[in-house]
Amino acid sequence: MVQEQSNTTLKAAWISIFVTLVLIAAKLLGGLLSGSLALISLAAESGLDLFSVLLTLFAVRITARPADKDHPYGHGKFDNLSSLFQSLILLGISCWIFYEALQRLLHPDAAKLAIDYITFLILIGAFILDFWRSRKLGEIGKEERSQALQTDALHFFADSLSVVVVFLGLIFSKYLKLEGADSYAALLVAGFVGTLSIRQGKRALDPLTDRFAHNEDYDKISKIIMETGGIHNIEKLRMRHSGPDLFIDATIEINRVLPFASVEHILNDIKQKIEKEFSGVEVNLHPHAVKLDYESTFETIKLITSEEGLLPHNIELSRDEKGAVSLDLHLEFPPKSSFWEAHLESEIIEENIKKQLPSISNIILHLEEERPDYAMTLVHNITQQKKVLAEEISTLAKSSNLFVKDVKDLTLLESEPYKELKLAFTIILDKNLSLAAAHDIVTSVEQTLRKKFPELSRIVIHSEPE
Questions:
Q1: Domains in the chain: ranges and CATH
Q2: pLDDT, tens digit, 9 for 90 and up, residues 111-123
Protein backbone atom coordinates (compact mmCIF):
# COMPACT_ATOMS: atom_id res chain seq x y z
CA MET A 1 0.00 0.00 0.00
CA VAL A 2 2.82 2.40 0.93
CA GLN A 3 4.65 1.49 -2.29
CA GLU A 4 1.54 2.24 -4.38
CA GLN A 5 1.18 5.63 -2.69
CA SER A 6 4.86 6.37 -3.34
CA ASN A 7 4.58 5.47 -7.05
CA THR A 8 1.51 7.67 -7.51
CA THR A 9 3.19 10.62 -5.80
CA LEU A 10 6.41 10.20 -7.78
CA LYS A 11 4.48 10.08 -11.05
CA ALA A 12 2.70 13.33 -10.16
CA ALA A 13 6.04 14.97 -9.32
CA TRP A 14 7.60 13.99 -12.67
CA ILE A 15 4.59 15.35 -14.59
CA SER A 16 4.91 18.59 -12.63
CA ILE A 17 8.62 18.85 -13.57
CA PHE A 18 7.83 18.52 -17.27
CA VAL A 19 5.06 21.17 -17.10
CA THR A 20 7.39 23.51 -15.19
CA LEU A 21 10.09 23.29 -17.85
CA VAL A 22 7.55 24.19 -20.54
CA LEU A 23 6.27 27.15 -18.52
CA ILE A 24 9.75 28.50 -17.79
CA ALA A 25 10.60 28.62 -21.48
CA ALA A 26 7.26 30.16 -22.48
CA LYS A 27 7.12 32.85 -19.76
CA LEU A 28 10.76 33.82 -20.18
CA LEU A 29 10.32 34.16 -23.95
CA GLY A 30 7.18 36.25 -23.51
CA GLY A 31 8.81 38.46 -20.87
CA LEU A 32 11.92 39.13 -22.96
CA LEU A 33 9.89 39.89 -26.09
CA SER A 34 7.45 42.23 -24.32
CA GLY A 35 9.70 43.69 -21.64
CA SER A 36 7.03 42.99 -19.00
CA LEU A 37 8.42 42.78 -15.46
CA ALA A 38 5.29 40.96 -14.34
CA LEU A 39 5.79 38.30 -17.00
CA ILE A 40 9.53 38.00 -16.28
CA SER A 41 8.68 37.65 -12.57
CA LEU A 42 6.36 34.78 -13.47
CA ALA A 43 9.20 33.14 -15.40
CA ALA A 44 11.54 33.56 -12.42
CA GLU A 45 8.85 32.13 -10.17
CA SER A 46 8.51 29.11 -12.47
CA GLY A 47 12.30 28.69 -12.37
CA LEU A 48 12.14 28.37 -8.63
CA ASP A 49 9.09 26.16 -9.09
CA LEU A 50 11.42 23.69 -10.76
CA PHE A 51 13.66 23.70 -7.71
CA SER A 52 10.69 23.25 -5.36
CA VAL A 53 9.33 20.35 -7.44
CA LEU A 54 12.74 18.66 -7.37
CA LEU A 55 12.72 19.21 -3.62
CA THR A 56 9.28 17.60 -3.45
CA LEU A 57 10.56 14.65 -5.49
CA PHE A 58 13.42 14.20 -3.03
CA ALA A 59 11.06 14.50 -0.04
CA VAL A 60 8.64 11.95 -1.50
CA ARG A 61 11.44 9.42 -1.96
CA ILE A 62 12.65 9.92 1.61
CA THR A 63 9.13 9.89 3.08
CA ALA A 64 8.35 6.56 1.39
CA ARG A 65 11.10 4.82 3.38
CA PRO A 66 9.85 2.60 6.23
CA ALA A 67 10.61 3.34 9.87
CA ASP A 68 14.06 2.29 11.06
CA LYS A 69 16.19 2.35 14.20
CA ASP A 70 17.12 6.03 13.79
CA HIS A 71 13.62 7.09 12.68
CA PRO A 72 11.13 5.02 14.73
CA TYR A 73 8.26 7.29 13.63
CA GLY A 74 9.17 6.98 9.96
CA HIS A 75 10.51 9.65 7.60
CA GLY A 76 7.31 11.68 7.19
CA LYS A 77 8.83 14.87 8.65
CA PHE A 78 10.92 15.23 5.47
CA ASP A 79 7.65 15.90 3.66
CA ASN A 80 6.79 18.67 6.14
CA LEU A 81 10.34 20.06 5.93
CA SER A 82 10.12 20.20 2.14
CA SER A 83 6.81 22.05 2.39
CA LEU A 84 8.31 24.61 4.79
CA PHE A 85 11.33 25.18 2.56
CA GLN A 86 9.12 25.71 -0.50
CA SER A 87 7.08 28.25 1.45
CA LEU A 88 10.27 30.19 2.23
CA ILE A 89 11.18 30.11 -1.46
CA LEU A 90 7.76 31.51 -2.37
CA LEU A 91 8.15 34.25 0.22
CA GLY A 92 11.56 35.16 -1.23
CA ILE A 93 10.08 35.35 -4.75
CA SER A 94 7.29 37.65 -3.60
CA CYS A 95 9.80 39.96 -1.89
CA TRP A 96 11.91 40.18 -5.07
CA ILE A 97 8.88 40.91 -7.27
CA PHE A 98 7.71 43.56 -4.79
CA TYR A 99 11.11 45.28 -4.85
CA GLU A 100 11.38 45.27 -8.65
CA ALA A 101 7.83 46.58 -9.06
CA LEU A 102 8.57 49.50 -6.73
CA GLN A 103 11.73 50.32 -8.70
CA ARG A 104 9.76 50.50 -11.94
CA LEU A 105 7.09 52.69 -10.37
CA LEU A 106 9.81 55.06 -9.13
CA HIS A 107 11.60 55.00 -12.52
CA PRO A 108 8.86 54.52 -15.18
CA ASP A 109 11.16 55.31 -18.10
CA ALA A 110 13.62 52.57 -17.24
CA ALA A 111 11.58 49.88 -18.94
CA LYS A 112 9.43 50.01 -22.04
CA LEU A 113 6.76 47.41 -22.85
CA ALA A 114 6.36 45.75 -26.26
CA ILE A 115 3.16 43.78 -25.87
CA ASP A 116 1.61 41.77 -28.76
CA TYR A 117 -0.74 38.83 -29.26
CA ILE A 118 2.09 36.32 -28.67
CA THR A 119 2.41 37.66 -25.12
CA PHE A 120 -1.29 37.09 -24.46
CA LEU A 121 -1.21 33.59 -26.02
CA ILE A 122 1.71 32.66 -23.73
CA LEU A 123 -0.22 33.92 -20.69
CA ILE A 124 -3.38 31.99 -21.65
CA GLY A 125 -1.36 28.79 -22.15
CA ALA A 126 0.45 29.33 -18.84
CA PHE A 127 -2.84 29.84 -17.01
CA ILE A 128 -4.31 26.59 -18.42
CA LEU A 129 -1.23 24.54 -17.55
CA ASP A 130 -0.85 26.04 -14.04
CA PHE A 131 -4.53 25.60 -13.20
CA TRP A 132 -4.63 22.00 -14.48
CA ARG A 133 -1.43 21.12 -12.62
CA SER A 134 -2.69 22.73 -9.40
CA ARG A 135 -5.92 20.69 -9.40
CA LYS A 136 -4.13 17.45 -10.27
CA LEU A 137 -1.47 17.79 -7.59
CA GLY A 138 -4.07 18.91 -5.03
CA GLU A 139 -6.17 15.80 -5.61
CA ILE A 140 -3.17 13.47 -5.38
CA GLY A 141 -1.75 15.34 -2.38
CA LYS A 142 -4.99 14.97 -0.41
CA GLU A 143 -5.42 11.34 -1.44
CA GLU A 144 -1.84 10.41 -0.50
CA ARG A 145 -1.75 12.84 2.48
CA SER A 146 1.44 14.49 1.13
CA GLN A 147 1.85 18.01 2.45
CA ALA A 148 4.68 18.67 0.01
CA LEU A 149 2.39 17.94 -2.95
CA GLN A 150 -0.38 20.03 -1.41
CA THR A 151 2.08 22.90 -1.05
CA ASP A 152 3.01 22.49 -4.72
CA ALA A 153 -0.68 22.54 -5.63
CA LEU A 154 -1.20 25.77 -3.68
CA HIS A 155 1.95 27.17 -5.23
CA PHE A 156 0.73 26.51 -8.76
CA PHE A 157 -2.75 27.79 -7.99
CA ALA A 158 -1.10 31.03 -6.94
CA ASP A 159 0.81 30.95 -10.25
CA SER A 160 -2.44 30.64 -12.22
CA LEU A 161 -4.01 33.59 -10.38
CA SER A 162 -0.80 35.55 -10.84
CA VAL A 163 -1.07 34.96 -14.60
CA VAL A 164 -4.61 36.42 -14.54
CA VAL A 165 -3.38 39.53 -12.70
CA VAL A 166 -0.49 39.97 -15.14
CA PHE A 167 -2.86 39.45 -18.08
CA LEU A 168 -5.13 42.23 -16.83
CA GLY A 169 -2.15 44.48 -16.09
CA LEU A 170 -0.85 44.10 -19.65
CA ILE A 171 -4.31 44.81 -21.10
CA PHE A 172 -4.55 47.99 -19.06
CA SER A 173 -1.05 49.01 -20.19
CA LYS A 174 -1.53 48.31 -23.89
CA TYR A 175 -5.15 49.27 -24.53
CA LEU A 176 -6.09 51.67 -21.72
CA LYS A 177 -2.66 53.30 -21.66
CA LEU A 178 -2.49 53.15 -17.85
CA GLU A 179 1.09 53.92 -16.88
CA GLY A 180 2.55 51.50 -14.34
CA ALA A 181 -0.32 48.97 -14.66
CA ASP A 182 2.20 46.18 -15.25
CA SER A 183 4.10 47.12 -12.08
CA TYR A 184 0.90 47.33 -10.06
CA ALA A 185 -0.04 43.89 -11.33
CA ALA A 186 3.38 42.65 -10.20
CA LEU A 187 2.74 44.15 -6.74
CA LEU A 188 -0.57 42.28 -6.51
CA VAL A 189 1.15 39.06 -7.52
CA ALA A 190 3.85 39.64 -4.88
CA GLY A 191 1.29 40.33 -2.15
CA PHE A 192 -0.84 37.32 -3.05
CA VAL A 193 2.09 34.91 -3.32
CA GLY A 194 3.59 36.22 -0.06
CA THR A 195 0.31 35.72 1.83
CA LEU A 196 -0.09 32.16 0.57
CA SER A 197 3.54 31.31 1.37
CA ILE A 198 3.18 32.50 4.98
CA ARG A 199 -0.05 30.56 5.42
CA GLN A 200 1.39 27.36 3.95
CA GLY A 201 4.60 27.81 5.92
CA LYS A 202 2.59 27.79 9.14
CA ARG A 203 0.79 24.61 8.05
CA ALA A 204 4.18 22.97 7.43
CA LEU A 205 5.66 24.25 10.69
CA ASP A 206 2.87 22.86 12.90
CA PRO A 207 3.75 19.16 12.31
CA LEU A 208 7.47 19.93 12.65
CA THR A 209 6.84 21.38 16.11
CA ASP A 210 4.25 18.66 16.95
CA ARG A 211 1.47 21.23 17.17
CA PHE A 212 -1.97 19.70 16.73
CA ALA A 213 -4.94 22.01 17.01
CA HIS A 214 -8.19 20.85 18.60
CA ASN A 215 -9.96 20.12 15.33
CA GLU A 216 -12.52 17.78 13.76
CA ASP A 217 -10.13 14.80 13.77
CA TYR A 218 -9.53 15.26 17.49
CA ASP A 219 -13.27 15.35 18.17
CA LYS A 220 -13.91 12.35 15.92
CA ILE A 221 -11.27 10.22 17.66
CA SER A 222 -12.53 11.28 21.10
CA LYS A 223 -16.05 10.26 20.09
CA ILE A 224 -14.88 6.84 18.85
CA ILE A 225 -13.11 6.17 22.15
CA MET A 226 -15.93 7.35 24.42
CA GLU A 227 -18.63 5.47 22.50
CA THR A 228 -16.78 2.18 22.96
CA GLY A 229 -18.24 0.09 25.76
CA GLY A 230 -16.16 -0.14 28.95
CA ILE A 231 -14.48 3.30 28.63
CA HIS A 232 -14.99 5.66 31.57
CA ASN A 233 -13.00 8.71 30.43
CA ILE A 234 -10.13 9.96 28.25
CA GLU A 235 -7.29 10.98 30.54
CA LYS A 236 -4.95 12.16 27.80
CA LEU A 237 -5.16 12.29 24.00
CA ARG A 238 -2.15 13.32 21.93
CA MET A 239 -1.90 13.41 18.16
CA ARG A 240 0.95 14.27 15.82
CA HIS A 241 1.47 14.33 12.07
CA SER A 242 4.60 13.07 10.38
CA GLY A 243 4.17 13.69 6.68
CA PRO A 244 1.21 11.57 5.52
CA ASP A 245 1.12 9.54 8.74
CA LEU A 246 -0.93 10.25 11.86
CA PHE A 247 0.20 9.04 15.28
CA ILE A 248 -2.33 8.80 18.11
CA ASP A 249 -1.34 8.30 21.73
CA ALA A 250 -4.18 8.04 24.26
CA THR A 251 -4.46 7.19 27.95
CA ILE A 252 -7.97 6.00 28.75
CA GLU A 253 -9.66 5.21 32.05
CA ILE A 254 -11.18 1.73 32.23
CA ASN A 255 -13.16 0.02 34.96
CA ARG A 256 -10.49 -1.70 37.07
CA VAL A 257 -12.60 -4.77 37.82
CA LEU A 258 -12.67 -5.84 34.17
CA PRO A 259 -10.55 -8.92 33.40
CA PHE A 260 -7.45 -8.48 31.27
CA ALA A 261 -9.02 -10.29 28.30
CA SER A 262 -11.93 -7.83 28.31
CA VAL A 263 -9.58 -4.82 28.46
CA GLU A 264 -7.58 -6.20 25.54
CA HIS A 265 -10.79 -6.69 23.54
CA ILE A 266 -11.86 -3.08 24.24
CA LEU A 267 -8.48 -1.68 23.14
CA ASN A 268 -8.52 -3.73 19.92
CA ASP A 269 -12.06 -2.57 19.22
CA ILE A 270 -11.01 1.10 19.52
CA LYS A 271 -7.97 0.57 17.28
CA GLN A 272 -10.03 -1.10 14.56
CA LYS A 273 -12.61 1.71 14.58
CA ILE A 274 -9.93 4.42 14.32
CA GLU A 275 -8.01 2.57 11.59
CA LYS A 276 -11.27 2.20 9.65
CA GLU A 277 -11.91 5.95 9.89
CA PHE A 278 -8.32 7.14 9.23
CA SER A 279 -5.79 5.68 6.82
CA GLY A 280 -2.07 5.70 7.58
CA VAL A 281 -2.63 5.88 11.33
CA GLU A 282 -0.74 4.29 14.21
CA VAL A 283 -2.68 4.01 17.47
CA ASN A 284 -1.11 3.51 20.90
CA LEU A 285 -3.59 3.08 23.75
CA HIS A 286 -2.65 3.00 27.42
CA PRO A 287 -5.35 1.71 29.81
CA HIS A 288 -5.52 3.28 33.27
CA ALA A 289 -7.53 1.19 35.72
CA VAL A 290 -9.77 3.34 37.91
CA LYS A 291 -12.30 2.63 40.63
CA LEU A 292 -15.78 3.69 39.59
CA ASP A 293 -18.50 4.95 41.91
CA TYR A 294 -20.76 2.00 41.13
CA GLU A 295 -18.13 -0.64 41.93
CA SER A 296 -19.71 -3.21 44.23
CA THR A 297 -18.19 -4.49 47.47
CA PHE A 298 -17.83 -7.98 45.99
CA GLU A 299 -15.99 -6.61 42.93
CA THR A 300 -13.60 -4.69 45.19
CA ILE A 301 -12.87 -7.79 47.27
CA LYS A 302 -12.25 -9.93 44.16
CA LEU A 303 -9.92 -7.26 42.76
CA ILE A 304 -7.90 -7.02 45.98
CA THR A 305 -7.39 -10.79 46.11
CA SER A 306 -6.58 -11.04 42.39
CA GLU A 307 -3.82 -8.41 42.82
CA GLU A 308 -2.08 -11.00 45.00
CA GLY A 309 -2.68 -13.68 42.37
CA LEU A 310 -5.21 -15.58 44.50
CA LEU A 311 -8.67 -16.96 43.81
CA PRO A 312 -11.44 -16.09 46.30
CA HIS A 313 -14.70 -17.93 46.80
CA ASN A 314 -17.54 -18.18 49.32
CA ILE A 315 -17.56 -14.41 49.84
CA GLU A 316 -20.21 -13.61 52.40
CA LEU A 317 -21.15 -10.29 54.01
CA SER A 318 -23.31 -10.02 57.13
CA ARG A 319 -24.55 -7.22 59.38
CA ASP A 320 -25.36 -7.60 63.09
CA GLU A 321 -28.06 -5.82 65.08
CA LYS A 322 -25.66 -2.96 65.87
CA GLY A 323 -24.93 -2.36 62.16
CA ALA A 324 -21.41 -3.82 62.21
CA VAL A 325 -20.46 -5.48 58.88
CA SER A 326 -18.50 -8.74 58.84
CA LEU A 327 -16.80 -10.49 55.91
CA ASP A 328 -16.19 -14.22 55.53
CA LEU A 329 -13.85 -15.12 52.69
CA HIS A 330 -12.16 -18.29 51.46
CA LEU A 331 -8.74 -17.90 49.82
CA GLU A 332 -7.12 -20.54 47.63
CA PHE A 333 -3.31 -20.73 47.61
CA PRO A 334 -1.12 -22.67 45.17
CA PRO A 335 -0.48 -26.33 46.04
CA LYS A 336 2.34 -26.93 48.53
CA SER A 337 2.23 -23.34 49.77
CA SER A 338 3.84 -22.61 53.14
CA PHE A 339 1.33 -21.94 55.90
CA TRP A 340 3.47 -19.04 57.15
CA GLU A 341 3.70 -17.41 53.68
CA ALA A 342 -0.02 -17.90 53.13
CA HIS A 343 -0.70 -16.22 56.47
CA LEU A 344 1.49 -13.22 55.55
CA GLU A 345 -0.30 -12.82 52.19
CA SER A 346 -3.68 -13.08 53.88
CA GLU A 347 -2.70 -10.26 56.27
CA ILE A 348 -1.80 -8.05 53.27
CA ILE A 349 -5.20 -8.81 51.71
CA GLU A 350 -6.99 -8.12 54.98
CA GLU A 351 -5.19 -4.79 55.36
CA ASN A 352 -6.06 -3.74 51.79
CA ILE A 353 -9.72 -4.68 52.30
CA LYS A 354 -9.89 -2.52 55.43
CA LYS A 355 -8.29 0.40 53.56
CA GLN A 356 -10.60 0.24 50.56
CA LEU A 357 -13.72 -0.90 52.43
CA PRO A 358 -13.59 0.83 55.84
CA SER A 359 -17.25 -0.06 56.49
CA ILE A 360 -16.19 -3.70 57.12
CA SER A 361 -15.27 -4.01 60.78
CA ASN A 362 -14.57 -7.73 61.05
CA ILE A 363 -12.81 -9.99 58.52
CA ILE A 364 -12.48 -13.77 58.77
CA LEU A 365 -10.25 -15.37 56.14
CA HIS A 366 -10.35 -19.10 55.54
CA LEU A 367 -7.05 -20.32 54.05
CA GLU A 368 -6.96 -23.45 51.89
CA GLU A 369 -4.90 -25.04 49.18
CA GLU A 370 -6.04 -24.76 45.59
CA ARG A 371 -6.82 -28.13 44.09
CA PRO A 372 -4.79 -28.84 40.96
CA ASP A 373 -6.53 -30.21 37.86
CA TYR A 374 -5.19 -33.71 38.44
CA ALA A 375 -6.56 -33.83 42.02
CA MET A 376 -10.04 -34.98 41.00
CA THR A 377 -12.19 -36.83 43.51
CA LEU A 378 -13.19 -40.36 42.53
CA VAL A 379 -16.99 -40.83 42.85
CA HIS A 380 -19.49 -43.64 42.33
CA ASN A 381 -23.06 -43.19 41.15
CA ILE A 382 -25.18 -44.92 43.80
CA THR A 383 -28.59 -43.55 42.80
CA GLN A 384 -29.99 -47.03 42.09
CA GLN A 385 -28.61 -48.48 45.35
CA LYS A 386 -30.14 -45.56 47.25
CA LYS A 387 -33.40 -45.54 45.29
CA VAL A 388 -35.61 -45.07 48.35
CA LEU A 389 -33.48 -42.14 49.59
CA ALA A 390 -33.55 -40.58 46.13
CA GLU A 391 -37.37 -40.75 46.01
CA GLU A 392 -37.67 -39.22 49.50
CA ILE A 393 -35.36 -36.36 48.50
CA SER A 394 -37.31 -35.76 45.28
CA THR A 395 -40.66 -35.73 47.11
CA LEU A 396 -39.42 -33.33 49.79
CA ALA A 397 -37.84 -30.98 47.20
CA LYS A 398 -41.10 -30.80 45.20
CA SER A 399 -43.22 -30.08 48.28
CA SER A 400 -40.82 -27.63 49.96
CA ASN A 401 -41.96 -24.61 47.91
CA LEU A 402 -45.04 -23.75 45.85
CA PHE A 403 -42.93 -22.39 42.97
CA VAL A 404 -41.10 -25.71 42.47
CA LYS A 405 -42.84 -27.35 39.50
CA ASP A 406 -40.75 -30.47 39.16
CA VAL A 407 -37.49 -32.24 40.05
CA LYS A 408 -35.40 -34.14 37.49
CA ASP A 409 -31.94 -35.63 36.90
CA LEU A 410 -31.51 -36.43 40.59
CA THR A 411 -28.16 -38.14 41.19
CA LEU A 412 -26.47 -39.46 44.35
CA LEU A 413 -22.66 -39.76 44.28
CA GLU A 414 -20.34 -41.34 46.83
CA SER A 415 -16.72 -40.15 46.94
CA GLU A 416 -13.53 -42.09 47.59
CA PRO A 417 -12.00 -42.67 50.06
CA TYR A 418 -14.11 -40.83 52.67
CA LYS A 419 -17.53 -42.17 51.53
CA GLU A 420 -18.97 -38.63 51.45
CA LEU A 421 -22.41 -38.35 49.90
CA LYS A 422 -23.05 -35.74 47.22
CA LEU A 423 -26.47 -34.84 45.84
CA ALA A 424 -27.07 -33.14 42.47
CA PHE A 425 -30.38 -32.44 40.74
CA THR A 426 -32.36 -29.91 38.70
CA ILE A 427 -35.50 -28.15 39.84
CA ILE A 428 -38.02 -26.58 37.48
CA LEU A 429 -39.30 -23.18 38.62
CA ASP A 430 -41.94 -20.71 37.50
CA LYS A 431 -40.46 -18.76 34.56
CA ASN A 432 -41.99 -15.48 35.79
CA LEU A 433 -39.80 -15.38 38.89
CA SER A 434 -37.02 -12.84 39.26
CA LEU A 435 -33.46 -14.15 39.47
CA ALA A 436 -33.23 -13.13 43.13
CA ALA A 437 -36.46 -14.97 43.97
CA ALA A 438 -35.29 -18.10 42.11
CA HIS A 439 -32.02 -18.05 44.05
CA ASP A 440 -33.86 -17.70 47.36
CA ILE A 441 -36.03 -20.72 46.51
CA VAL A 442 -32.97 -22.83 45.63
CA THR A 443 -31.33 -21.81 48.92
CA SER A 444 -34.53 -22.65 50.84
CA VAL A 445 -34.77 -26.10 49.24
CA GLU A 446 -31.11 -26.77 50.04
CA GLN A 447 -31.58 -25.83 53.72
CA THR A 448 -34.68 -28.03 54.01
CA LEU A 449 -32.82 -31.02 52.59
CA ARG A 450 -29.83 -30.50 54.90
CA LYS A 451 -32.06 -30.55 57.98
CA LYS A 452 -33.86 -33.70 56.84
CA PHE A 453 -30.79 -35.51 55.46
CA PRO A 454 -27.65 -34.49 57.43
CA GLU A 455 -25.69 -37.34 55.79
CA LEU A 456 -25.51 -35.25 52.59
CA SER A 457 -22.06 -33.60 52.66
CA ARG A 458 -22.70 -31.51 49.55
CA ILE A 459 -25.83 -30.42 47.68
CA VAL A 460 -25.71 -28.92 44.19
CA ILE A 461 -29.03 -27.67 42.78
CA HIS A 462 -29.42 -26.42 39.21
CA SER A 463 -32.53 -24.40 38.38
CA GLU A 464 -34.32 -24.06 35.06
CA PRO A 465 -37.45 -22.11 34.06
CA GLU A 466 -40.64 -23.99 33.39
A1: 2-208 (1.20.1510.10), 216-290 (3.30.70.1350), 297-369 (3.30.70.1350), 379-465 (3.30.70.1350)
A2: 555 566 676 777 7
